[in-house]
Write a structure and sequence with these properties.
The protein has helices spanning 3-11, 15-25, 42-52, 68-82, 97-109, 125-132, 160-166, 189-201, 241-244, 259-272, 278-294, 301-322, 357-369, 400-411, and strands at 29-30, 92-95, 115-120, 136-141, 143-144, 156-157, 171-177, 205-209, 235-240, 253-256, 326-328, 335-339, 371-372, 374-375, 391-395. By secondary structure, the chain is an alpha/beta fold. The strands form four sheets. Strands 2-10-9-8-7-3-4 form a seven-stranded mixed β-sheet, sandwiched between helices. A four-stranded antiparallel β-sheet has the order 11-12-15-14, covered by helices on one side. Helix 3 packs across helix 11 (278-294) and helix 5 (97-109) runs parallel beside helix 6 (125-132). The structure holds 4'-deoxy-4'-acetylyamino-pyridoxal-5'-phosphate (IK2).
């Protein structure tokens, strides 16, 4: 076994998998994993069916770093979003979901001994991916700002001095997730400018995971860090068709960066998987063509989905508040995190004293109440887990019936 895989296995407790198994065993109402329990919009489903019936080549290998129709539609769409001419053949690489785009970015850019700054809470694969390349993860937390309100995701901020103290001559990259999973924070232009200034000063690359880019609420605007002056040259922006079109099982993602960086990601893409599924790429290409035409109008799925989700977010938040709980209202994404420290429950045999409290609580919640959630300590480094183990994450991109079933369970609680 390779040294790095051994290190990964020693570090990783496979909690996501364990919790998914437990939820299935107890037939729990699932607000755990982040995926919709409803189908993607008709126009992309129809595009997929059309691709499948579209002739022999739709079933064969395609251009390895991304089907031409898809890289063209992504370049066209994101040129409009960024006000910059994106070259479809040079600047875009298609991957097996955003997860694989992240993998390509880490493998292509991070070398033995390089440092990668990761903002906590983080989507947990960032850290494992940095370690798999021999890199070192350096964590910096978002914290409720002084005088701010811990119950609003926007009030969780980086301390600029603390962030700067993490940059060294060995810093290769910083990873940000905007909107953030699990917190739902959407960075302001000023916050992004502060990060951009440090990237430029310390010549670091920014890996910007923007899979929830369309999902912002209450008029909050999502700003792409690659659009700030001097940042296109040093940013890898990662997106997901799974999140954009509610089709997580299609596993189509992409990375967009200047050609000299994309070239490196393409090499890893080719070494690791060679090419992605042809028909799924074609369907996503048609999805973006359609969204390009209707962008900014009420027909746009990128407007309809956040409107639908805002309602779901508000209903769930209000149920939690009625119970006297303190949800952190997300500005973006499709998760809501809630403080569970006021629950006074006997957790029984739901783990050991060494396990973070939220993990034991979630196991108990699944077994005793039939509701599945995700412990927020999973999104923190080993050293910080115990400091952030009083929140659980609930996913609200679910049918109303699923959310109502979850709310019924919650209402039967007596915190
Ligand atoms: N980046 C982030 C921030 C993600 O949340 C995801 C999807 N994971 O969500 C599962 C969960 O948190 O419950 C990805 C990347 C990966 O996206 P894709 O499915 O396109 O590979």
């Amino acid at each position: 076994m390779s040294r790095r895989v051994r290190a990964y296995l020693a570090e990783d407790d496979d909690v996501w998998f364990q919790l998914a198994l437990l939820a299935a065993e107890y037939s729990a109402v699932n607000l755990g994993l982040g995926f919709p329990d409803f189908a993607p919009p008709d126009f992309v489903k129809e595009a997929f069916c059309k691709a499948l019936n579209g002739g022999a080549m739709m079933h064969q290998y395609t251009r390895s770093t991304g089907q031409r129709s898809l890289v063209k539609s992504l370049a066209k769409f994101f040129s409009r979003m960024t006000g910059r001419e994106i070259d479809p053949l040079e600047d875009v690489v298609v991957t097996v979901g955003a997860y694989h785009a992240l993998f390509c970015a880490f493998q292509a850019l991070v070398d033995e001994g390089d440092e990668v700054i990761i903002v906590e809470p983080f989507f947990d694969c960032y850290q494992s991916m940095a370690h798999l390349c021999g890199g070192k993860s350096v964590n910096v937390p978002l914290r409720p700002k002084a005088g701010g309100c811990a119950n609003r995701s926007g009030d969780w901020v980086l301390d600029p001095e603390e962030l700067e103290s993490k940059f060294t001559s060995r810093t290769k990259a910083i990873v940000i997730n905007n909107p953030n999973n699990p917190l739902g924070k959407v960075y302001t232009r000023e916050e992004l400018q502060m990060i951009a200034d440090l990237c430029i000063k310390y010549e670091a690359i920014c890996i910007s995971d923007e899979v929830y880019e369309w999902l912002t609420y209450d008029g909050v605007q999502h700003v792409r860090i690659a659009t700030l002056p001097g940042m296109w040259e040093r940013t890898v922006t990662i997106g997901s068709a799974g999140k954009s079109f509610s089709a997580t099982g299609w596993k189509v993602g992409w990375a967009i960066s200047p050609g000299n960086i994309t070239k490196l990601l393409k090499a890893v893409q080719q070494i690791s998987i060679s090419e992605c599924a042809t028909a799924a790429q074609e369907a996503v290409a048609q999805g973006f063509e359609r969204e390009y035409e209707v962008f900014g109008t009420p027909e746009s799925y990128f407007l309809q989905l956040p409107a639908l989700l805002k309602n779901k977010r508000d209903k769930l938040a209000s149920t939690l508040e009625q119970l006297g709980l303190k949800p952190i209202l997300p500005q973006g994404g499709y998760f809501i995190i809630v403080d569970i420290s006021c629950f006074n429950v006997e957790l029984g045999d739901s783990g050991t004293e060494n396990d973070p409290y939220d993990l034991r609580f979630v196991k108990w919640l699944i077994k005793e109440k039939g509701l599945s959630a995700i412990p927020v300590s999973l999104f923190y480094s080993r050293d910080h887990k115990k400091d952030f183990d009083k929140y659980i994450r609930l996913c609200f991109i679910k049918e109303d019936s699923t959310l109502e079933a979850a709310q019924d369970i919650l209402k039967r609680f007596n915190p």
